[in-house]
Q: What sequence folds into this?
């Protein structure tokens, strides 16, 4: 086996098994071969921890991927025509014997112009900064002693435009510092680290996590009281009934017993306001249909009215519900439900952290619309619900 592939599996499994680094299976990794001909990259729809020699990756010809980014005719196309074409060209750049038609990561073009080893993640402690209004100055402060400071990337629609923007910013950084930025913070998105060896890349991830955690205080609940079984059952049936009424779909409702984050969130006076802010990042929008719904009263009529109101505004009906005093409920198929629960739990923490860093920075309506219409995200969600 190519040593670049061995390295890819290793850095992917190590990061993928660390619950502080991956939420809802988010993130991707890549390794370029020593001669610069190929790039091995995670495939869409496989979690980092599940990658192995046989599956979960693709090998692409690096020059073909780089030519996608540089193609001015793609930049001139409208998004709905451009993005499927980019996916198509990335598939054409694949050169391997992998069985099936796994797609290379939708961020392949972005990996192509970075160093040999690339790790991209959406860690909670990074989100606490990239989703906060005061996040950028805080990152500058935390990393102020670095000779080569991290690169901050303002929010850009995912896909081709994000890759193009990062290419421009990286070019500018190279002119200024004489090297590729080793760490990039993507506003409302996540983290990229890139290095010349697998160990340097892994070490860099740990350093960023340590630095970003250093000033965050984990919110603690006042007290956690276990709710009565009968109250949980009543809430489940009210949510299921309301979802059926508002969306004409029957979905199972799962209760996730309280963890400290949910309990701490429920005890806040501003809980309703914190959840009135829309989705924080593409994952929360795609998987959980936006932020969780805050419920102080849990009856079919109230929930159904709230769901219908979201739909009438052109938004998707919430899939996660925080019922005051009870906790987190998710209305979704059995495979997607745990992913939504995980993303929502993290989102609650990020929202609490962000209030201490100048306030929550969420996706604007236009940014949400772009993602809702983005074919690649629909594809990722479909894969998640099919996963065994
Ligand atoms: Zn990402």
A:
């Amino acid at each position: 086996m190519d040593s670049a592939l061995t390295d890819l599996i290793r850095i992917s499994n190590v990061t993928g098994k660390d619950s502080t680094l991956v939420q809802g299976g988010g993130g991707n990794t890549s390794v370029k071969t020593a001669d610069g001909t190929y790039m091995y990259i995670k495939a869409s729809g496989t979690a980092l921890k599940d990658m192995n020699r046989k599956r979960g990756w693709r090998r692409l010809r690096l020059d073909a991927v780089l030519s996608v980014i540089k193609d001015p005719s793609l930049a001139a196309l409208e998004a709905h025509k451009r993005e499927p074409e980019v996916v198509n060209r990335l598939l054409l750049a694949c050169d391997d014997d992998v069985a099936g038609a796994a797609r290379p990561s939708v961020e392949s073009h972005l990996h192509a112009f970075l160093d040999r080893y690339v790790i991209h993640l959406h860690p909670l402690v990074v989100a606490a900064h990239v989703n906060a209004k005061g996040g950028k100055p805080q990152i500058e402060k935390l990393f102020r002693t670095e000779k080569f400071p991290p690169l901050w990337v303002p929010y850009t629609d995912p896909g081709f435009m994000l890759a193009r923007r990062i290419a421009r910013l990286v070019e500018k950084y190279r002119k200024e510092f004489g090297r590729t930025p080793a760490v990039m913070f993507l506003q409302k998105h996540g983290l990229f680290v890139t290095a010349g060896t697998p160990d340097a890349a892994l070490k860099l991830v740990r350093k960023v996590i340590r630095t970003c955690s250093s000033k965050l205080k984990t919110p603690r609940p006042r007290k956690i009281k276990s709710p009565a079984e009968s109250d949980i059952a009543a809430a489940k049936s009210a949510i299921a009934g309301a979802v059926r009424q508002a969306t004409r779909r029957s979905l199972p409702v799962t209760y996730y017993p309280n963890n400290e984050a949910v309990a701490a969130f429920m005890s806040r006076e501003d809980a309703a306001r914190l959840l009135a802010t829309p989705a924080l990042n593409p994952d929360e929008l795609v998987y959980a249909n936006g932020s969780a719904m805050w419920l102080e009263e849990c009856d079919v009529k109230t929930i159904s009215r709230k769901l219908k109101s979201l739909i009438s505004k052109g938004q998707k009906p919430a899939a996660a519900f925080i019922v005051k005093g009870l906790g987190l409920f998710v209305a979704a198929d059995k495979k997607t439900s745990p992913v939504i629960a995980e993303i929502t739990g993290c989102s609650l923490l990020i929202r609490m952290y962000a209030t201490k860093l100048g306030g929550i920075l969420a996706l604007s309506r236009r940014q949400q619309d772009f993602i809702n219409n983005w074919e690649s995200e629909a594809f990722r969600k479909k894969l998640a619900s099919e996963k065994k």
User: Anything to note?
Assistant: The CA atoms of residues 140 and 149 lie 8 Å apart. The first helix runs from residue 3 to 16. Residues 26, 120, 122, 189-190 surround zinc ion (CB under 6 Å). The chain has two domains: 3-213, 229-386.
